[in-house]
Design goal:
Strand content: 25-35%
InterPro entries: Pectin_lyas_fold, Pectin_lyase_fold/virulence, RHGA/B-epi-like_pectate_lyase
Pfam family, one: Pect-lyase_RHGA_epim
Oligomer: single chain
Keywords: Disulfide bond
Shape: globular
Structural class: mainly beta
Number of helices: 11
Helix content: under 10%
Protein name: Rhamnogalacturonase A/B/Epimerase-like pectate lyase domain-containing protein
Radius of gyration: 39 Å
């Protein structure tokens, strides 16, 4: 016997675990009672585990009342009622295991009283039924029953959801408790002295106070019976009726949860030739700016008056921003009928500024069908596939109208019949919400359903974001003006149309004035869009001054606020279609009209609206059918005169709260609610009050970019020395007028550099001879003309080149190629130290007329993968060096590293120093142990690894000279660029590259101009490939019309300088890759110029580390980080050209993880456009220093350790690579190191007097 609860009430047994070490009885039972309840009430048994089997796991006896057994599991659970009539026992969310006898011992006669309930019970087999006389009024809800036939109906047994899918809520007792313990709402709102204190939106008492109700301040307000002071009356069942209000707090940009953003300014129309003088036509400048901006950002329109005579289509995530409506003015002197031309009118669009998106609902977006009906106010949907959902996911619920219709009729409460327009309509109505919970067979939404959902309407759920093609775009802070012309008439508009949004989400118009328009703003098929601060005005154009002010149609959850109609249009605001959840708040007009166009918009809210005179507020009403569907709410609507009530059929279930109208007389059954027609109610703006209630505060956040702080007052850089801004002293001279601020990560002369912090690599070692010496001019050892080459652009000179390279004397020097054009038609492979030297890239050309596919064929399976990828997309060129750099082989092995070390360390403990010398080069090799932990460590623990990195060898291959050594330790000249763990198999190796002193210089390589066939479909116009070369180079080379310009694999200490990548027009892209580096290190690419646009201009991938790109430029350079953990790569003093795609990158995320590992450093990178930071998934611990941008680190990127230094101009030094070279000797000076046995420490005097090496002191110290 485990526990007896006898005669007890309000008793809890929680987290009970009962088991046995071994079976106790031959009869299969391990005891008699697990828990025995009798003669009591309101006992809760929850969160239990019965891993053994009692005769009665739970015994409930003697009229035990209200027992709850919940949230437990058992191996073969039984709950026995013991014939004594326990009443209203609840078994909720319990797993019975084998369930061979879930109702306990059998016998004659009833065992329970009424209302024993089994809620979401499950078993390894279909749940059994008890014998028919077990007890009356039993219920099974969410239990997959073995049978249900033959039940004695006189016992009134009840069954619901006879399936394995659970019923919501999962645990009915917990849900009842939550609802009971929720904050108590005031049932009688209008008791004595009830009022609202506006400041905190709390209840206050008129004329007196007590503990719960403070005295009202002088400015208190009377609350509406539909809302109360702080929402305490929202949707309560009281004298007002049930659930009169929708939740409008989700209307507008980002579902009301974020302010309209300040996207970074990427460019100005002035950069593209705009004048803004009110005379010049600036149309092309606007079009060029829009075309150049690329992925996203803001186009600034400075103060001025800009003449535009063309239509402008705004792409995704692009904003047109002026300075202020008073100072930035876009003037459109012609209507669209003259610009685009047509014989009809522009009544329904388009507009001059067009935001064209798209919306689709198909297999790409589909998640699941809704399998059961749901009612308005509910939030649980039963679905055909709950595994397709995850909490936090936004979904789009779509209803389609059958031939018989029914959707629009239901939205009108069944009080009026829909028109034929709302029958046989796929995707007629949609509702958007987050998923807050996912169960088995059902989901719970963050929002309550605003209307009923019937399975007759084929309800389906789709991925919200994927069902729209365009978002995050807008126009703001300017005026749009048309000439003053007579308004023709409705249906005859000339096309003075300003702004049109079609099928977009999360877009906006903000602080825009529109003058003399036929159409100001249209939101067509939009969701979560905001029009904020739109001002309409016009000279006299006739009786009406235009047709549309704001026209909303066929969308949902849009917000119009702070709108002012300063002139009279046919329809100041028109709301067309079912358009659920539209909000118009804090708006006004001289005689405002809001026209529903007899189209049945549902749940339209007009909150704190001043309609001016008030003669036409309801628009052009249709007297025979409803204009609006249910729950149109007019809240605090003011007018100069008492307005006439709408016609009796205007709409069902309307809410008229504090609106100055004559006594309304709705049609029978339309059930209008009318409250307080003479005075404002609290809150003044219901939309704002609902938003405040849901979000707590209004999230109007203006991200601060912050200011840089340097080391000391007036700290600046004069050249590469520190100076004082506006002052001088003995240590620091006064700054020159053109000084630049230093980076806090380097200082003026490297005094702030620390390899253990954000710049772990010393890139001064990059390139030929580890940066110690310039590229040499090696002696000529042969001339291709001596071997039969002609160079006349007609003769095939391939064999002459091959003969020259086969000559054993042509080695360790240059093979000279005089001026001329040399045709090469075969691959030239080299495995020796030789430099191909021309007479100059404008004089010597190697012309290759064929592709590798032409010469050698193509299996289109890339190394036999059967992938359909060209054999030449990733690799071989026509000119190839095949070297060998044994990275971690037995022949190179010297020692193990025997103790862990941190990034920035220089002293390493090793198993042996045999074979090592001071001044000699060694390589520290790190392998992943098989779990991806090395790459995760390189990522700072902030991001994971791709599957291909788990178990990869030689991910880090750090090269350094030994600067000192002793028994069991060495000191490296270069600090370690990564952490060392013993789990990474850290080893020390010789650096033994097989081929050095090779390369190409002073010539051009050219292919014929062909159409680029597409990504990974390359024919193989591939120029140069370096494989495992060291101390080699490309110098002053031009490559023209290539698929692949220069490709390297495992290249070390090589310099590519003066490389030009050029091309004619080959189509949508001019080649695959310009420059591609992988699995190499310590390479230098300088003074490059990519004058064309390749698919990837420059790519780094697969563990390329410590490499530097410096002083390069191009047309629109793309720095492609192609995944697989490139690490500590420097981009310094790079001019991207246009700069529309600087960070665009691709690669196989599934296998190779994020685009970069840590410490990719962008130093003084700039373009014509302001750069946009990459997406957060790009990589961790990125350095953006001196980047030309107005972007900031926010959102997910804030948790990835990115740093952004962006002073007003570039930081000092301009080129970090050059500065590191000039300061290397001073920065790397270190005192002698001492390494003591672990656990031993000599006192300072002993260390000072010892004859051995002194301990390290200063900025770097090592405790080993």
């Amino acid at each position: 016997m485990g526990i007896i609860v006898d005669g007890s009430a309000f008793f809890t047994v929680r987290q009970l675990h009962m088991g046995v070490t071994a079976p106790r009885g031959a009869n299969g039972y391990d005891g008699t009672w697990g828990v025995w309840l009798k003669n009591g009430a309101d006992v809760l048994i929850t969160s239990f585990n019965m891993s053994c089997a009692f005769t009665q796991d739970f015994g409930v006896q003697s009229f035990q009342l209200g027992t709850v057994i919940s949230n437990g599991v058992g191996a073969n659970l039984s709950i026995n009622a013991l014939y004594a009539g326990p009443y209203a026992t609840l078994v909720s969310n319990v797993a019975f295991g084998a369930a061979s006898n879930p109702y306990g011992l059998s016998g004659a006669g009833p065992k329970t009283s009424s209302y024993s309930t089994f809620w979401n019970v499950r078993a390894d087999v279909p749940f059994p039924m008890p014998r028919t006389m077990y007890g009356p009024r039993m219920a099974w809800v969410g239990a997959k029953m073995g049978r249900w036939s033959g039940i004695n109906t006189t016992l009134q047994w009840y069954m619901e959801n006879n399936s394995t899918a659970p019923t919501w809520p999962i645990d009915v007792q917990a849900d009842q408790l939550t609802q009971r313990m929720a904050p108590q709402q005031i049932i009688t709102a209008f008791g004595p002295g009830y009022g609202c204190n506006p400041a905190p939106s709390t209840i206050c008492c008129i004329g007196f106070s007590n503990v719960t109700c403070p005295a009202c301040p002088p400015g208190y307000g009377l609350p509406s019976k539909l809302w109360g002071c702080a929402g305490e009356l929202y949707n309560m069942v009281n004298s007002t009726g049930s659930r009169r209000l929708l939740d409008w707090s989700y209307a507008g940009y980002m579902a009301g949860e974020a302010p309209i953003p300040k996207l970074p300014i990427v460019t100005s129309v002035m950069d593209f030739g705009a004048v803004g003088d009110g005379v010049a036509d600036d149309s092309q400048a606007f079009l060029d700016a829009v075309d150049a901006i690329g992925r996203e950002g803001t186009i600034l329109v400075p103060e001025g008056q800009y003449i535009i005579t063309k239509q402008i289509n705004i792409p995704n995530r692009v904003v047109i921003k002026g300075m202020h409506p008073a100072t930035t003015r876009l003037v459109f002197p012609k209507p669209l009928s003259e610009v685009l031309g047509n014989s009809s009118s522009y009544t329904y669009g388009p507009a001059f500024i067009q935001f064209n998106g798209a919306s689709w609902l198909d297999s790409r977006t589909f998640l699941a069908n809704v399998t059961r009906d749901a009612l308005r106010g509910q939030s649980v949907l039963f679905v055909s596939n709950s595994s397709a959902f995850s909490p936090g996911q936004w979904v789009r619920l779509v209803l389609s109208a059958p031939a018989t219709g029914g959707i629009a009729t239901d939205l009108m409460g069944g009080l009026a019949q829909e028109t034929a327009d709302y029958r046989s309509k796929p995707n007629l109505l949609s509702f958007n919400s987050r998923v807050s919970f996912v169960g088995v067979g059902f989901i719970k939404l963050d929002r309550q359903l605003p209307y009923n959902v019937s399975t007759r309407w084929a309800p389906g759920l789709h991925i919200f974001e994927l069902s729209f093609s365009r978002q995050q775009a807008g126009i703001q802070d300017l005026t749009i003006e048309f000439p003053l012309t007579p308004y023709r008439a409705m249906g005859k508009e000339a096309g003075f149309n300003a702004i049109y949004f079609w099928s977009v989400v999360h877009c906006w118009v903000k602080n825009v004035a529109v003058i003399n328009a036929d159409m100001a703003v249209t939101l067509d098929g939009t969701h979560f869009c905001t029009v904020d601060g739109l001002q309409l005005s016009s000279g006299s154009r006739g009786v009406n001054n235009g047709l549309w002010g704001v026209w909303l149609k066929n969308g949902a959850d849009n917000l119009i606020r702070n709108f002012n109609a300063g002139s009279r249009l046919v329809r100041d605001i028109a709301v067309q279609g079912l358009q659920p959840g539209t909000v118009i708040s804090n708006s006004s007009g001289i005689d405002l009209s809001i026209d529903a166009m007899a189209s049945g918009p549902y749940g339209l809210l007009l909150s704190n609206v001043d309609v001016g005179y008030g003669s036409r507020f309801w628009g052009a009403q249709v007297l025979t059918t409803p204009d609006v569907a249910s729950f149109m709410t007019a809240w605090n609507v003011k007018s100069q005169v008492k307005m006439v009530a709408p016609n009796p059929l205007y709409g069902p279930l309307m809410n008229l709260v504090a609106i100055n109208i004559s006594d309304p007389a709705p049609a029978p059954g339309f059930n209008w609610y009318n409250e307080n027609a003479t005075k404002e109610v609290f809150p003044l703006d219901l939309y704002a009050a609902q938003r405040f209630k849901r979000l707590g505060v209004t999230p109007e956040i203006d991200p601060s970019e912050g200011q840089l702080a340097y080391a000391g007052p007036g700290y600046g850089c004069n050249g590469w020395t520190r100076c004082l801004v506006g002052a001088s002293n003995a240590t620091f001279p006064a700054c020159a007028p053109n000084y630049t601020p230093p980076s806090v990560h380097f200082g003026c002369a490297g005094e702030l550099w620390n390899a253990a912090q954000r710049l772990p690599a010393d890139w001064s070692f990059a390139g030929y001879a580890s940066g110690d010496n310039p590229i040499p001019n090696v002696p000529v050892v042969g001339n291709v003309k001596d071997y039969g080459a002609v160079g006349d652009n007609r003769t095939d000179d391939t064999d002459a080149f091959l003969r020259a390279l086969a000559d054993p004397k042509v080695v360790n020097g240059a093979l000279f190629i005089p001026a001329g054009v040399y045709r090469i038609t075969k691959i030239i492979d080299m495995r020796k130290s030789i430099v191909l030297r021309g007479a100059g890239k404008n004089l010597t050309t190697i012309y290759i007329p064929f592709s590798l596919t032409d010469v050698y064929g193509n299996t289109w399976s890339e190394a036999g993968t059967g992938s359909g990828v060209s054999d030449y997309s990733h690799g071989t060129g026509f000119i190839n060096w095949w070297g060998w750099d044994p990275v971690a082989f037995d022949r190179t092995y010297l020692a193990n590293v025997t103790a862990a070390a941190q990034r920035g360390a220089t002293v390493l403990q090793v198993s042996s120093t045999t074979g090592m010398t001071v001044g000699g080069w060694v390589r520290i090799n790190l392998d992943d142990p098989g779990d991806g932990s090395l790459v995760r460590d390189m990522n700072g623990g902030l991001m994971g690894n791709g599957p291909n990195q788990a178990g990869a060898r030689s991910i880090i291959r750090h090269l350094s000279r030994i600067s000192a050594m002793g028994p069991g330790w060495i000191r490296l000249e270069r600090p370690m660029i990564a952490n060392i763990s013993l789990s990474y198999n850290p080893t020390v190796h010789r650096f033994l590259p097989m081929i050095t002193m090779a390369g190409v210089e002073y010539l051009s390589i050219e292919f014929p101009l062909t159409t680029y066939p597409g990504h990974l479909m390359e024919q193989g116009y591939n120029a140069i490939h370096f494989n495992q070369l060291a101390h080699s180079w490309l110098r002053d080379v031009r490559i023209h019309n290539s698929d692949s310009g220069f490709y390297s694999w495992g290249m070390v200490f090589c310099t590519i300088t003066g490389l030009e990548i050029t091309s004619g027009d080959r189509g949508y892209s001019n080649g695959h890759r310009g420059i591609w580096l992988e699995r190499g290190q310590d390479n230098l690419l300088s003074n490059f110029n990519i004058t064309t646009k390749m698919y990837h201009d420059i790519s780094v991938s697969f563990y390329e580390h410590s490499t530097a790109f410096v002083n390069g430029t191009g047309k629109d350079v793309n720095m492609d980080h192609h995944r697989a953990a490139p690490y500590a790569v420097l981009w310094s003093n790079i001019d991207l050209g246009i700069g529309s795609r600087g960070f665009d990158s691709s690669g196989n995320e599934e296998y190779n993880g994020n685009h970069t590992s840590s410490f990719i450093t962008f130093w003084n990178v700039r373009g014509k456009l302001n750069a946009l930071l990459p997406e957060p998934g790009f990589g961790p611990q990125l350095n953006f220093i001196g980047l030309k941008t107005q972007d900031w680190v926010w959102g997910e990127a804030s948790n990835l350790g990115w740093i952004l230094e962006k002073p007003p101009t570039a930081v000092s030094p301009r080129d970090l690579y050059t500065a590191q070279k000039l300061t290397r000797a001073r920065r790397l000076v270190q005192p002698p190191a001492v390494v003591r046995p672990m656990g031993m420490c000599a006192p300072p005097s002993t260390a000072a007097n010892s004859s051995g090496p002194r301990p390290a002191t200063g900025r770097r110290s090592y405790a080993l």
